[in-house]
Amino acid sequence: MLVEILAAFEHPQSLTYYLGQVGVAVFAISGALAADRKGSDWVGVLCLAAATGLGGGSLRDLLLRRESVFWIADTTYLWVVIAATAFTIFWVRFFKPPTNALLYADALGLAMFSIVGAKIAESSGVAAIIVVLMGVITGVAGGILRDVLANEIPLIFRASEPIYSVSSALGIIAYLGLKTFGCPPQLATLSGVAIIAATRFAAIIWKIKLPEFTIRKR
Fold this sequence. Notes:
The chain crosses the membrane at residues 15-35, 42-64, 76-94, 101-120, 126-149, 161-178, 190-208. The protein has nine helices and no strands. By secondary structure, the protein is an all-alpha fold. The chain has one domain. The longest helix is centred in the N-terminal third of the chain and has 26 residues, at 12-37.
């Protein structure tokens, strides 16, 4: 089964592209769910979904000085955002979203976008530490933008929130490590995505958190 899946994405860039598409869709859904909580109209929902789905990758492309921002070079991503937004709008009209749907959608988007961002940075020839940083930025920036626009404290800055950016960094480091030891690129990519999603899901379920920073009062 795994061999068949990998064969479908024989060229590593194909897997990166489709992970990016799915990541945009999932992040757009999380943005639309956040807008629904705020009672936004359809235009507001689309704007928040687009900011969430496209924000992280846009910042990455600007920092790496790529020739063009990804969704300008390939407008398919815009249609993915529109389709994901329309799906969410009609879904919530007839069905109640599952508990923590926003968190789980965000976790999936984080997993896919982090690895996609890392692979794009890697192809730019930057140092490994920058690959990790660009992957994390790609994964978390859209969610930060979503929460700021929705007038919420971003998930990454909440002391009460289970580990977030740490999950992203761990998965990217695992991806780089697997490739270093000769693992096929496609398998390393899927493994990195799985590790990020699994650690984030586990953190949500069992409320695994980092120690809170406090300044002792004298």
